[in-house]
Amino acid sequence: MGTPPCLTGVEEKSHYTLAADEKLGVLLLNTGGPETLNDVQPFLYNLFSDPDVIRLPRLFKFLQRPLAKLVSVFLALRTKERYAAIGGGSPLRRLTDEQADALRMALEDKNVHADVYVGMRYWYPFIEQAVQQIKRDGITKLVVLPLFPQFSISTTGSSIGVFRYIFRQDAYLSRLPVSVILSWYQRHGYIKSMADLIETELGKFGKPEEVMVLFSAHGVPISYVEDAGDPYKDQMEECIYLITQELKARGIGNDHTLAYQSRVGPLQWLKPYTTEVLVELGRKGVKSVLAVPISFVSEHIETLEEIDMGYKDLALGSGIENWGRVPALGCTSSFIRDLADAVVEALPFAKALESDCA
């Protein structure tokens, strides 16, 4: 399974010519989310059954599923309330399907004909289902594109682990040429698209130059970084540096800070926490804040409920008077075009999984 060395996407033209008998597929990976309130508890069970989400010592691995059951039942009621507040379910499947359609059309514009599939880690359509459809469709070359800009063990790592396991169990799939894009936070098209959204939202404030830009990233337990070598923190900090440099090149030099959200459980997660930063900003007299959900490319519960409701209320209650939030990238045309470029650039690196694990 091939991994492109560094797809920076710096203003180059991407071209690829399919062989006459070649059938190209692109697999988008995401977490998935419960589509109804009845889906919430089984979705949480799937999430916490993942050993890359709750990392137990080897001697206690047998407790993974019982613990997942306990945690999912314990969190189900409050989580149902949160999903009820955004309409009764996650929009992630619909939004990811829309991104898949937009990517397929962007590839068509480059004269690259591809079937684009969606595979979710914790809910329908599962990665396993997407892979079986890829096999049925007779795909002859595949690009795997996780919709997580920065790599983490708990997101891209977990999803790719499932993908590799499925492929290794199947003689046909193990011979299929595959290219995996492990991260793409440094791509110029992505950086520019994020800067565009930030610039637009800053312009909605009465005094844009006084706005504090708060990058809020999904957190991970600090042990992932310190003990397991997860590059997520370093990649996140580099990503924000690149975005702020792009903004400075446009004459936008707002103060900014990074914080981490969505902590679950008693473990120490990456700090500072978004909740603590908002309270501190209010204490320091900051009056205007623009929240930027930096690790999310689609709207879901972490943006629509956690940021738009919880963090907004906390900010206003802490003395911050003006609040804004940058929307997720979604199907922003410059973003989708850059993903299409990334796919085309990855194609020459495709190789069979069986040759990657000798």
From TrEMBL:
Its EC number is 4.98.1.1. Pathway: Porphyrin-containing compound metabolism; protoheme biosynthesis; protoheme from protoporphyrin-IX: step 1/1. Keywords: Chloroplast, Heme biosynthesis, Iron, Lyase, Plastid, Porphyrin biosynthesis. It holds the Pfam family Ferrochelatase. It is found in: Plastid, Chloroplast. It comes from the Eukaryota. It is an enzyme of class 4 (lyase). It catalyses: heme b + 2 H(+) = protoporphyrin IX + Fe(2+). Gene3D superfamilies: 3.40.50.1400. One of its GO terms (molecular function) is ferrochelatase activity. SUPFAM superfamilies: Chelatase. GO terms for cellular component: chloroplast; mitochondrion. One of its GO terms (biological process) is heme biosynthetic process. HAMAP family: Ferrochelatase (MF_00323). Catalyzes the ferrous insertion into protoporphyrin IX. Belongs to the ferrochelatase family. PANTHER family: FERROCHELATASE, FERROCHELATASE-1, CHLOROPLASTIC_MITOCHONDRIAL. This is Ferrochelatase.
